[in-house]
Amino acid sequence: xxxxxxSGIKITLxxxxxxxxxxxxxxxxARALAEREGSGELTDDKMDILKFMRSYYKEYNFFPILRFVxxxxxxxxxxxxxxxxxxxxxxxxxxxxxxxDEVNMFxxxxxxxx
Length: 114
Known about the structure:
Blueprint: E1 3-6, E2 9-12, H1 27-37, H2 44-60, H3 66-72, H4 79-84, H5 87-93, H6 101-104
């Protein structure tokens, strides 16, 4: 498993680049993952999206419908794709578990209807 260092902390990822331990996530880890994914600066809007995704996942153990994310953080209906390009990138940066081969084999979620 790869380990990256960022701002003096070590972050353990799986072979697909997902955070191994959900509880290790914080804003510093999010910034490291965003940099690794080439997602640019994590603005307040992006952090709101990530935090909502994490809280939804923690409660339901599932990825929320993208428009539901945007509605709940008070952003335009396509906020996830506008801010992160691909929802799977937002999922990684949010420190959520690897969604599995079904999603990773596509490299993006469009064929899955997300």
